[in-house]
Amino acid sequence: MHIHRSLDEIHLAGAWLTIGVYDGVHTGHRAILTDLVAGAHAASRPAVVVTFDPHPVAVLRPDVRVRLLTTPDERAARMSELGVDHVVIQHFDRDFSRQTALAFTEQLKDRTGFERLLVGYDFAMGRDRGGDVAALRLMGAELGFELQVYDPVLNGETAVSSSRIRRALAEGRVGEAGAMLGRAYTVSGPVVAGAQRGRSIGIPTANVAVPADKLLPATGVYACRVTVNSATFGAAANIGVRPTFEPDTAEMTVEAHLLDFESDIYNCIVDVAFVEKLREEIKFSGVEALVAQIRADILQAREVLGEGLS
Question: Which of 60, 126, 160, 232 has a CA positioned 20 to 30 A from the CA of residue 293?
């Protein structure tokens, strides 16, 4: 797969195309992307996705702090797994947002020569969201492309959406979020040095430096699976501010105790996949009470993950 950091870097003919932030690359997105790849390849055409960075809401609503389900590179990696040939990560700023839908569509036509555009039922682009489905049908007749529109993918009775997944994660409902994503919600980052308190109490943890713009699930303790150096281990992970030791800090941390694992993994990149929330983060009266609860958390994580006692 080819990754392009601007439309100016790409020049194709006859592409099949889809456009959007695609944050999360969830089950609704995957319905479009799988058809995009299958149809394009059956027609011997390139499958192309145009996505945006930063998130348009962060530019258009600077008062709103946007936390991402997937970083741009994570999005591209998920799309590569599905067989997408080209991903354009287009820089989004105020000037870009002022383009009319027609002007942007003409630019897309010039750079990709697209002959089919695949979008969701509620899609709209361009200044004042002027490029909705009805407008795109008219543009298709004028510019020479077919429009393929998708109904929502449902989870229960409600449409899957990135905003719905964010709400579930914000409330600690990681299983529900995972069902909508089609996989467990995952954060990644290098293992960095911490205060070594876990090691001092006999329960070492990996402190994961998660990108600042990545969404963290609600504070609490979770059963997780952690992948490091291509191997995956069960884990009990805490998201929070460590109130027993650091009651005055507001800095969120991700600390994972890997089950049956003792190797030094400082500076290694790890993936932490959240399976189920076990409990809220609480302040304990002292170290003994904390250790007793962590050991109970580990036993519960083993049960949730189907990991036998070592």
Answer: 232
The rounded distance, in Å, linking the Cα atoms of 133 and 148 is: 9
* 30 Cβ neighbours under 8 A, 6+ residues apart: 82, 182
> Within 13 A of 88's CA, how many CA atoms are on the CB side?
23
Give the separation between CA 265 and CA 192, rounded to whole angstroms.
9
Name 290's Cβ contacts closer than 8 Å, sequence gap at least 6: 201, 244, 284
Residues whose CB falls within 8 Å of the CB of residue 261, separated by 6 or more in sequence, listed in order = 233
For residue 194, is pLDDT > 80? no
pLDDT at 189: 96
Q: Indicate the burial class of 309 (C-beta count within 10 angstroms; 0-12, 13-18, 19 or more).
A: exposed
Topology of domain 184-305, CATH: Elongation Factor Tu (Ef-tu); domain 3 (2.40.30)
How confident is the model at residue 269, as a pLDDT? 96
Domain ranges of the chain: 2-159, 184-305
Q: Which of 71, 93, 167, 82 is nearest to 118 (CA)?
A: 82
Between CA 243 and CA 282 the distance in angstroms is 7
What is the rounded (10 degree) CA torsion for 231, 232, 233, 238? Answer: 120
CATH, domain range 2-159: 3.40.50.620
Q: Is the pTM of this model over 0.70?
A: yes
Q: Tell me: the pLDDT tens digits for 114-136?
A: 999 999 999 999 999 999 999 99
pLDDT tier at 170, thresholds 50, 70, 90: very high
Give the residue-averaged pLDDT of 222-235: 96
Beta bridge partners of 90: 52
Burial readout 235-253 (b: 16 or more C-beta within 10 A, e: otherwise): bbbbbbbbebeeeeeeeeb
